[in-house]
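Researcher: Let's run the pair from yesterday's discussion. Sequence first, then tokens, for each.
Model: Starting with the first of the pair.
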Amino acid sequence: MIGLKKLNKRKGLIKIYQTMLNTSLIFLSFILTYFLFRELYYILNDVLLGIKDVHEIFSKILIFFLYFGFISIIVQYFKENYHFPIRYLLYIGITATIRFIIVNNGESIHNLWLALVILVLTISYVILPSTEVKNNSRFN
């Protein structure tokens, strides 16, 4: 009887935390959406005014896609029933690193290290689905 009361209290506490998390994520998604559209305005403004600095425009496009990626993470969290699979984080890491290499005009050795990061993330991405399939088949 006492164990059942503790279990009900824990479930209630988990539900409160889940509600707080969901509310915070929804609020964060509204803030990120505002910044996404603000960045889109800046990009369009630069294009229409004829800004010639391509790297500056690419930097703003990179920021735009970062906001877009974060919003996508939040949407995916709700689609997956309050769970975010690691494969999406790997995918976002790969694409963000590629975008950074495109915009980055620094030393080539840094780009080599970033390419190695992409290789490691890609290998992890390829290996991960086979382990996820095995884990999911145990529960069916």
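Model: Moving on to the second of the pair.
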Amino acid sequence: MTTAKKQKTKAGSAKVSAELRLLKEAKIKDLIGDAAGDRLEASGVLYRDGVFLVVCDNLPFFLRIGGELSPKAPENGALGTERGKATKKKGKKDSQKEAAAEVEGYEDLAYDPSGERHFALSEAVPVAPEGFRARVHEYDARLRPRGSATLDFALSDANKGLEGLEWVERDGTGYLLGLCEGNRCTGGKEGRKPGGGRIQVFRRGAEQWDRTDTIRLPASLPFEDYSSVSVRDGRIAVLSQASSALWVGRLSPRKWQVDEGTVYALPTDDKGRTVYGTAEGVSWISRDHVVVVSDRAKKGRANDHYRAKDQSIHVFLIPSGG
């Protein structure tokens, strides 16, 4: 664990309390074998009842991993692979929206315990007459599809849409939280400028998920991007891939507001270099434990130091006081 330090940006500064402590990790392929192929671009994870449910942004189905991260766990495997096979057979006769949503896979996961429903997020799909919207796919407790609907929030960039998804219930009403990948929900240079983290709040409408509010993350947060969000017992965690860090704060029980919270760096190597450079999904396990999944590292020597940790699942301890 490193000593406390400060990370400063043009948008302000935020205290980086310490590094998260790695407890265990494994390559996803070592756990599930050949069930999903060799390319596992892990993008979202959900912990529930001792099991991890994982999605990849290149696969239109789910991966399940036992909580001990053992290759012998009976829970390990791929679920719904028949949907992927069916999608390939559909061809050009199907709608552009459906094909894009299915073939591209999912960005993140959420779960509604009251309705026993799972939700999977497609980052951005084209909508008529032009533009993009994120789409949420609904599944029942057994992960059988129950339809999909778009999120009422315009996206200017197909590659910089909504990256994180979470379910929150208040006074008997359920809401989906959609985390924007770029600062101020934009792409390009502006989206990489820290200080503009946003989470859009949605409630189910007649034909879509209607946006009802926006959660503004602290302006002091030094993240260049945002990749996943998880809420548990009033505490909210937001992961950044580009900044290789996790922010932990508190979500107001009545208002869509958060406190300043604390930033925790993902562990570095013995020379202080980033090794968790493809971290994409996060989910609470308990009050002081989180699970993170990592995407596939891009090609090129510049990304070689990420390969030991890519396409993997990791369990971290949050230092006391978080």
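Researcher: Give me one sentence on the second I can quote.
Model: Helices lie at 28-32, 81-90, 96-103, 188-192.
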